[in-house]
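Sequence design from tokenized structure. All designs in this work follow the same two-part layout: the structure record, then the generated sequence. An example of the structure record is given first.
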């Protein structure tokens, strides 16, 4: 039987970016908050002098133990879903700071088109442009309404970027708080080639600080050292913005935040219209606790937000057979494919150096920045050249035709270690009626709770997008004049391996209508007004960008909503 604890004003489930931002905003306003984190505590000193590619990049030290809890996957309902036994297509995090610890730091704003994708698509092309079964919808908020929250997130994190307004993206109220990162010879080569073709390259908005910075909360951090240990690693310098070095210290300083690590929330308690608290287990001792609360904020990863609601029977589960229900609907991923790889015999670059968000991007073919009238897809992709650092274990690119072993292979590996550049599109993922997340009827976790089941595959929309983008990446690469080029325009069926991106979205989607969304634009549940569900689970589709910047903006919006609810109560409209 669970030990019942004293009631608290607010409990937050998950202390990553979303939970950390909300904790900081609420505690600064004088509200007592309990933050529950399923994993252990983390701090910057944990990563001092730990540039260990085997431990972190290959053995996934910062990730969830899949032997205790995982997800199951299938391409269609016609096949049986099986558990993901090792980290592959995406990386599920655990510990204080969540995925905000091991992310790269690429911090984009979604486009104005994204937030009104249905209306703007129909307005320009007509309803017939949207294929049968595609379930895109407007998000219930516009870019202009969300822009102040983007600005607040970027100032908190110290996002580095170019000072001038990029014509391909949404208008900014303020410049980036810190300058763009250093422009390497490889990035300059990409930008020069893109400009010759009439495109609009710009330095990637980066949470890897380009300069020493003190944010509005008084948090001071040092500049990036370009060590190339970002993705899958914690930052030993604190230069990469993460919750542990930004928002969580602010909340702790108020004295109003209590963080409980090793607190794995298994159920949300409710009476049908309001939440009353949560149940959590200490995985080390197996003790079970009930934490009553006036307000419950689900701020864990996408799959866990969905799973908690489904297992707790709060909100109507999505039914793909008739399209009814919401929880689990509009799962979307990220479309990767169509890259161009250039090998140089006459140039050498320092590719072992870099940073997670060091790179340049063009958005000429992202969103609706180009005419789709004669194309068999909507939306698009950002096209980028990133210099994240080619760590030696994971990277060994050689030109096509090179033997796969022996003396020639070794010689080519050494020769091209710093002579290979990649231009990669990152494509938007549209939701479909038959793509969803539900509870697996067969497999359970270490506590006997059903795992979440993903039903997903790439569609013709995605294959057409990759074909189109592969021509653009090859065009830019040809202008960069490598000795040889490798490219691919084919997109195979989606598989849970190999790694592609950790950009899972949807399942608890936001909108203006209770019939088609689970939460409003404050991320407050329609079915329980004292529950807020924050994170990329709110996205009604996935854009051609990394999701974290938009997650951060929506978290600030949700924090404002919680403060209003605490003062006024009731649904926020």
């Amino acid at each position: 039987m669970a030990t019942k604890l004293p009631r608290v004003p607010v409990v937050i489930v998950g202390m990553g970016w979303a939970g950390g931002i909300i904790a900081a905003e609420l505690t600064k306003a004088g509200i007592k908050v309990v933050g529950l984190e399923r994993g252990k505590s983390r701090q910057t000193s944990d990563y001092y002098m730990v540039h260990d590619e085997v431990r972190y990049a290959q053995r996934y030290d910062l990730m969830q133990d899949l032997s205790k809890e995982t997800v199951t996957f299938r391409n269609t309902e016609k096949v049986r879903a099986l558990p993901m036994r090792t980290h592959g297509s995406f990386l599920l995090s655990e510990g204080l700071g969540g995925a905000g610890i091991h992310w790269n730091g690429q911090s984009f704003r979604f486009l104005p088109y994204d937030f009104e994708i249905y209306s703007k698509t129909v307005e320009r092309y007509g309803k017939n442009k949207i294929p049968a079964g595609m379930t895109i919808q407007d998000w219930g908020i516009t870019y202009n309404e969300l822009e102040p929250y983007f600005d607040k997130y970027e100032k908190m994190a110290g996002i580095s970027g170019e000072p001038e307004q990029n014509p391909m993206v949404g208008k900014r109220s303020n410049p980036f708080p810190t300058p763009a990162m250093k422009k390497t010879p490889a990035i300059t080569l990409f930008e020069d080639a893109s400009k010759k073709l009439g495109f609009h390259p710009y330095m990637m908005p980066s949470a890897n600080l380009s300069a020493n910075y003190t944010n509005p909360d008084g948090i001071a951090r040092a500049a990036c050292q370009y060590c190339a240990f970002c993705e899958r690693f914690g930052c030993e310098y604190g230069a990469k913005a993460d919750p542990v070095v930004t928002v969580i210290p602010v909340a702790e300083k108020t004295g109003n935040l209590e963080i409980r690590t090793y607190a794995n929330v298994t159920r949300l308690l409710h009476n049908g219209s309001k939440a009353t608290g949560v149940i959590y287990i200490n995985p080390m001792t197996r003790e079970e606790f009930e934490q009553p609360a006036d307000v419950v904020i689900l701020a864990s990863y996408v799959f866990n937000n969905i799973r908690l609601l489904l297992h707790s029977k709060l909100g109507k589960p999505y039914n793909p057979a008739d399209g009814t229900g919401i929880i689990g609907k509009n799962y979307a991923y990220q479309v990767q494919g169509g890259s161009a790889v250039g090998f140089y015999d006459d140039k050498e670059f320092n590719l072992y150096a870099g940073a997670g968000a060091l790179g340049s991007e063009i958005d000429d073919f992202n969103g609706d920045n180009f005419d789709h009238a004669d194309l068999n897809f909507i939306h698009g992709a950002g096209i980028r050249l990133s210099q994240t650092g080619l760590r030696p274990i994971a990277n060994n690119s050689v030109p096509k035709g090179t033997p796969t072993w022996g003396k020639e292979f070794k010689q080519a590996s050494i020769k091209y270690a710093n002579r290979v550049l990649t231009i990669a599109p990152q494509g938007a993922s549209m939701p479909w009626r038959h793509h969803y997340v539900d509870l697996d009827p067969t497999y359970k976790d270490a506590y006997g709770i059903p795992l979440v089941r993903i039903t997903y595959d790439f569609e013709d929309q995605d294959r057409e997008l990759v074909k189109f983008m592969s021509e653009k990446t090859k065009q830019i690469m040809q202008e960069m004049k490598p000795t040889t080029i490798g490219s691919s325009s084919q997109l195979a069926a989606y598989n849970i391996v190999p790694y592609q991106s950790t950009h899972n979205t949807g399942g608890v989607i936001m909108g203006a209508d209770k019939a088609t969304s689970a939460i409003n634009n404050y991320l407050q549940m329609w079915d329980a007004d004292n529950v807020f569900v924050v994170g990329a689970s709110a996205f009604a589709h996935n854009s051609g960008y990394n999701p974290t910047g938009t997650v951060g903006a929506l978290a600030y919006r949700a924090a404002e909503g919680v403060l209003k609810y605490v003062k006024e109560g009731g649904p926020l409209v």
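The chain has one domain: 3-568. We note this feature because it recurs in several other targets discussed in the main text.
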